[in-house]
Design brief:
Length: 107
């Protein structure tokens, strides 16, 4: 599985917004209990969509500007992108099958 850990704005722009593939971005924080629960689900999605979609994680404590740019008010929030635009969003815990079903429509 290949999860892109976003560490700066340009990495987000290049790896997610400019990608020719659909992207799923998990906005999370290390102190967030539900984020810890959704982490393994994101890993399952990344494994299932390897080479078909970008799966990325953004630590909101380290990347507050990105969280603000996409109006992430609570975590975990998972945002899907395609062609540089937001195409869907989940807030709170979701199992891998729900996330995968939504992402599958865009790959």
């Amino acid at each position: 599985m290949n999860i892109l850990n976003i560490s700066n704005l340009s990495q987000f722009d290049e790896g997610v917004l400019k990608s020719d593939k659909a992207a799923l971005v998990d906005f999370w924080a290390p102190w967030c209990g539900p984020c810890k629960m959704v982490g393994p689900e994101i890993e399952k999605v990344a494994a299932a969509f390897q080479n078909k979609a970008v799966v990325a994680k953004v630590n909101v404590d380290e990347q507050q500007e990105l969280a603000s740019r996409y109006n992430v008010m609570s975590i975990p929030t998972m945002v899907m992108f395609k062609n540089g635009k937001e195409i869907g969003r989940f807030i709170g815990y979701r199992p891998a099958k729900d996330i995968s079903a939504a992402l599958e429509k865009h790959v």
